[in-house]
């Protein structure tokens, strides 16, 4: 059996926001939009590591623990559909620098440890539907939810009995923004 695991760093959505997003999604999209992402799986990927060995996972876990990054908030005020990948998503029109920096640091450490990184620019988003390959009627706006990021996590993704599940392996807090 392979000891490799499919891992990624991500920001979780707090349970209250998960519920709000799921309710809004049900009220604002036709039922045949695609495969809805389960409430517990709503997240913003920071860096995708792919299927990696325990050794690499350990190295990246140690590195993650040494990252010094600050808390940030982002407004989920953007929405879109990527027909190529079949993803309907919500995101932000103004990604905070702290988020971009955190993703950039994680992605460069991942690349240095042999985890292939996409050449596409980082576009922080929460996937709402997958397999949405046909045209989708996108609601004109989101309710502009605010996401307060207080930490980031390493997740394992497994696929069993037709279901993708994420298991949080470890979380790290983000530092308070120093008072001026
Ligand atoms: P499923 O593939 O079963 O539909 P999923 O895409 O959520 O579900 P994974 O494929 O394990 O599950 O992906 C975990 C996270 O990593 C998701 O946010 C996904 O968008 C992202 N991801 C997957 N593959 C890549 C990739 N090659 N490059 C960048 N991000 C990726
Ligand atoms: Mg996938």
Summed up:
Keywords: Hydrolase. The protein is α+β, with helices and mostly antiparallel strands. Helix content is 24%, strand content 37%.
Provide structural commentary:
The chain has 180 residues and is of the alpha+beta class. The protein has one domain (4-75, 95-125, 148-173): Cyclic phosphodiesterase (Cyclic Phosphodiesterase, Chain: A, Alpha-Beta Complex), CATH 3.90.1140. The protein is 24% helix and 37% strand. A 4-stranded antiparallel sheet has the order 3-1-9-10, covered by helices on one side. β5 (78-82) and β6 form a beta hairpin. The longest helix is centred in the middle third of the chain and has 16 residues, at 97-112. The model has no long low-confidence stretch (mean pLDDT 96). Bound molecules: adenosine-5'-triphosphate (ATP) and magnesium ion. Residues 6, 8, 45, 48, 118, 127, 130, 157, 159, 164 line the site of adenosine-5'-triphosphate.
Give the helix proportion (percent range). 10-25%
Task: Report how far apart the termini are.
Answer: 53 Å
CATH topology: Cyclic Phosphodiesterase, Chain: A
What share of the residues does DSSP label as strand, in percent? Answer: 35-45%
Work out the helix count. 3
CATH first level: Alpha Beta
CATH superfamily: Cyclic phosphodiesterase
List low-pLDDT spans: none
Pfam family, one: 2_5_RNA_ligase2
EC number: 3.1.4.58
Family: Belongs to the 2H phosphoesterase superfamily. ThpR family.
Active site: 43, 125
């Amino acid at each position: 059996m392979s000891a490799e695991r499919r891992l990624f760093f991500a920001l979780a959505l707090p349970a209250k926001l998960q519920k709000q997003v799921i309710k809004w999604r049900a009220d604002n999209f036709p039922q045949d939009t695609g495969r809805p992402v389960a409430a517990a799986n709503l997240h913003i990927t920071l860096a995708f590591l792919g299927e990696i060995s325990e050794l690499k996972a350990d190295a990246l876990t140690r590195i993650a623990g040494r990252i010094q990054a600050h808390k940030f908030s982002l407004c989920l005020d953007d929405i879109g559909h990527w027909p190529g990948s079949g993803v309907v998503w919500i995101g932000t029109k103004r990604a905070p620098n702290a988020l971009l920096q955190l993703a950039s640091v994680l992605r460069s450490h991942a690349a240095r440890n042999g985890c292939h990184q996409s050449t596409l620019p980082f576009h922080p988003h929460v996937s709402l539907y997958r397999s949405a390959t046909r045209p989708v009627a996108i609601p004109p706006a989101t309710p502009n939810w605010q996401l307060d990021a207080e930490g980031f996590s390493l997740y394992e993704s497994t696929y069993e009995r037709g279901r993708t599940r994420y298991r949080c392996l470890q979380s790290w807090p983000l530092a308070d923004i120093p008072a001026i």
